[in-house]
Structures are given as C-alpha cells and as structure tokens.
Amino acid sequence: MYDLIIIGAGPAGITAAVYAARKKMKSLVVSKDIGGQAAWSGEIENYTGYQFITGPELAAKFEEHLRKYDIELKENEGVVGLKKEGDIITVTTDKGSYEARSAIIASGKRTRELNVPGEKEFKNLGLTYCATCDAPLFPGRDVAVIGGGNSALDATLQLMKIAKHIYLINITSCLGGDAIMRQKVEASEMVTVLNNSRVSAVSGAKMVNGIKVKREGQEESLAVGGVFVEIGLIPNSEFAKDIEKNQEGEIKVNNRNETNIPGIFASGDVTDVPEKQIIIAAGEGSKAALSAFRYLSEHRF
Amino acid sequence: MPINVKIYSTPACPWCMRLKQFLKENNIIYQDLDVSTNQPASEEMIQKSGQMGVPVSDIDGNIIVGFDKEKIKAALGL
User: Fold this and answer.
1) Interface predicted TM-score (ipTM)
2) B52/A40 Cβ within 8 A
3) Under a CB-based contact definition with an 8 Å cutoff, are residues A170 and A195 in contact?
4) Does A3 qualify as catalytic in the annotation?
5) pTM
C-alpha cells in the first residue's frame, strides 16, 4: 500500500513526485515515458532559470532530479483503470495493479489523430505527427499539412524551406494561430490554404500518394507525397472513468487540484487548468502533492 | 565484441536527441547520420526500416524505429 500513486512522469508528475519525496510520502510513479510532452518540445525559452534549453535537455534535468530521491518508478507502463473503494484507490496498468491512499493524475495530453481511413496504415510511411522530426525527409515534394492553429502554421513554415508545394487543410473558415506566422504562410506562393476543408481519407501504395479532401459537399483528391497531421492534442483521461471532466475530456480540478473524488488529485495538461505550459504543469504538480499530503494528514492515514 | 551502432536522425527532432543522450549516458559509441542533408543515408534508412520516421537505430543489423528504450537496451545487451 502506497501513500500516493502518481500517474504520469511529465513536468507535473515529476514535480509532484519530488514534493512527495520531500514530505516522506511512500510514493509510486507509473508512466509510459519520462518527460511527457516537454521531452518532445523543441526550444524552450520561458522556463525560469533557463534562458534557453531544448525539450530533451529539460526532460533529462527533470529525470535527474526525480532519480536523486528514492522514488519507485514504473516506466513503460500505461494506466488503464482508476477506482476508489472505501479509502483505497486502485490503479490498474497494462502490467499490474497497485493500491494507495491517494493518487495524482498527471497523464498529460497526446497528439490528436484524424481518425480517417488510411491514417494508421500510412503512419511513418509518409504520414507523420512530428513535422520537426520528419519534415527534412520530404525535400522537393508536394505535401499536405492538416490543421489551422499554431502547430500547423509552424509545420508549414518549416516545410516552406524543404518541400515543393504545401496544401494547408483547415477545417474552419479561416486560419487561427499567431498573426506573425499566419501572415508569412498566407503570403507564400508555395502554400495553398484550403479553408472549410476536412480530410476524409489518406491513400497510397507502399507510401502515401494522396489525400481526399471534403469541401462544401464536394470531395476532391490531392496528390501529395507527405501528410503532416497537426490538429492539436487530447487529454489522456479515458482511464479515469469516475472522474468529472469538461467537454474536451480534461479533468476538472479546483484550485487545490482536487477532483470530484476525495483523495484523487490531478495536475498539468490533463486538467482544465487555464493555460498549458511546462512551468504551469510543474507548479500544479507541486500543489497537487501538497494537497495529497494535507489529505493524508487530515485523514490520519 | 564492439557493437556497430548507426543512428539515422534529423537535427531538431526531440526523440533523436533523447536517443543520442541515452547512448552517451551508456558510453555507447555510435555513428550519427543526418538524413536531412545526407540523401544516400536517408534512402538507406527508408530501405532498411521500410518507413520514413526518425530516429532509426541500426544496432548490429537490428533495426529499431523510434526511441524505444526497451528494444534498444535489449539490442545493446544493457
């Protein structure tokens, strides 16, 4: 029996674990990976104390800090269930099951998928979710970027240096994101913006060779040799069935990081906290750990 | 026996950085091939792994796609 189980090891989960260790709570961290979204961020220039650091470097610093303490860590383990019976919270993973008096959900967000035919088949065969990683593999090709926010604009700007022509497929009536990036994209002759458009299928043979786009009731085919999916993120909250969430699936928390179930707390990007930032996630993680500590003290566990 | 480790990567890819960080921490000597500038290496990577995502590791002929720590550890005998 643990005092606390922390689900996730991104900035929120790791900070919660450090605070819990310093309060001498017997804790377990269960996570698929270490660093979370921070580990796949590019350049970070707004984490206080670091004027410039890359995501992987900051994630390595977090991990080093975590491992300084005697904290039990189960890596490569995905949580599939969370329930509370009496005073006991049970966390079920794809490898086992653990019990605790309290829990913190800090499982973050993951890339949103298109959910169209061909997407799974052509993943990494011309379809990618990481423009920063894979864009250089598409020199001189016609490609499509799916999305209309900052990440789609960022991918388009990167591809403008590499690809031949870029179709930007945007589901709404006009592009979102920051004006500076939007203007650069709209001014480029290399980019065709298709608004009010939805991708309905990804096609190919061995590799991607096209997409189908639905626009004002019409479906047309576009020949492209690369598809970059940049349609945002969704919270990893499906396993928390009894926990109250908002419309987007984010876990509702109050300013003490309490959920609707006493003893279960949540922090970071998986919650409805306004603004998703590494430093906010870290701060929220510390708050959640202190709230869990207070909960255990008050219940004399 | 020395192990032959080749990494196919791109410069800004966070998982590539994590992978190289991990190899350095474990004192593994590797050859880093930047597929954004090295076209033959890029074709070699696609041919070996049958896909276009980076990073790809070639550990003594063992092809691993992505920063899959468990598989990489196993291939390196760590």
Assistant:
1) 0.83
2) no
3) yes
4) no
5) 0.84
